[in-house]
Each structure stands twice: as structure tokens, then as C-alpha cells.
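Bug #77: duplicate submission created two jobs. Keeping one. Sequence:
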Amino acid sequence: MGKSLVIVESPAKAKTINKFLGRDFVVLASIGHIKDLPKSKLGIEIDKDFEPCYEVIKGKANTIKELRKASKSADRIYLAPDPDREGEAIAWHIAEEVDKKHEKTHRVLFNEITEKAVKDAIAHPCALDRNKFEAQQARRVLDRLVGYQVSPILWDKVRMGLSAGRVQSVAVRLVCDREREIQAFVPVEYWSLTALLEEPSSKAVFAAKLARKGGKKIELKNGDEAGAVLKDLEGAAYTVAEVEAREIKRNPAAPLAPWGSSPT
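Kept job's structure:
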């Protein structure tokens, strides 16, 4: 009976896990990704449903050779990269190189490097998660489509060495749109009138802001308009027609304005 092969990302993890599993297991490390999109070109077949064109990362040929050799004599292959989308992509690419038909490949997931967690994962393997792999792949494709077309603009307009991606580009767009709104803003002066009124029975004092005049919403655009309305209100009698309760946040340091006009 052959040994089982366990493939992780980190050589340090491989050494520790090998101690947990014993002599019936061989534990090797991929040292991260073994495949990626090419650096010198877009690497996305836009006309072929945005198919990514992966290639072996420079310097990883010997790693793949070692993994293939170990997999041939293994009865079972456990792929144990990190339990996230990035790890799933690494697992898929390893499987493509050592067991294309997935006949003896299993995925194992653990969130801590302890003997119990590792042995439980080996005892309960699962299948490779295509949805998680394609989610990571979609992010890489978006990064490439955006970055490889926006970054040259940054080099030309800002400075060399800058890069753009799916997140940075959207964030920059939001900042630019907001800045344009700020630059296009036209300040408009307006005034308000506030009165301090007293409830006859309890003598409680409350502030009331003028909202309508003659049943129509009032807008005071300057001090002269505010003064004219204030003059009309001198000596007037006031009746509370309706009370509406709601929560508001008020600056505790701001005093109530006395009866009169003030710019807002």
C-alpha cells in the first residue's frame, strides 16, 4: 500500500503537519501559487468568453516536477492550501498538474495547525470547490482587465510605477466624482427666524422656527427679507396647531437663538 500525499502552501506548515501524520504520509509544499497569468501581456482571451491563459510561474518547474513524482506513487492526494478563494485556486492548479481527472485527489480544510484539526480534516475530506475557484479567478480577470488598461494612463499622467486594480479604480472614480460636485457647488445665502415661546400653564419655554407664511413655505434669501418678515411678526399672537415628536442631534454648546433673525 502506497503512502498518502498531502500538499500545503508553506514549507514550515509541511514540516509541522508531517510530524502529526506520521510515516504513512508524505507532506510537500507548493510554496504558494504554481501558476499565474503572464506578466508581459493581458493574458485574457476576451473573444473566448474572457478565458484566462495561465502559465507556470518562473522558478516553479522543479516544484511541479517534485509534486508529480510524489503523486504517482501515492494512493491518495490531499490538497491542503489555505481554506479561502486564493487557496482554492492553488489547489485547482496543483490538481491540474498532478491528477487532471481528480481520480485520487481530495480537498482538506483546516483553520489551525494543530494535530486534532489536521487529523480531523484528513478524516473528512471534501471535493474541490469550483465556485470558490471561479470566484478567485473572476477577481484575477477583473484585476487584469482594469489594471493592464488603466495603469499605463497613470504612468503617462501621474508617474511611472503606479498600478490600478478593480478596487483602486472604483475608489478613484468615487473621489473624482465627489471632487467635481464640490467644485461645482454654488453657495446660496439663506436666513431663518426662530422664536422662544412660552406655554401659559406650565411656563415651559420652547423654540419655534418659522416655516410658512400665509400657508406657504417661506424662504428668506437675505437679511432684508428676514427683517421685513420679522417686522410683520412683531406683536403677533401665536397658537400651536400641531406637535410632532422626533429625535434630533443638537450641538450641546449651541445656545437657543433669541427672538430675531440670524444667518444660517
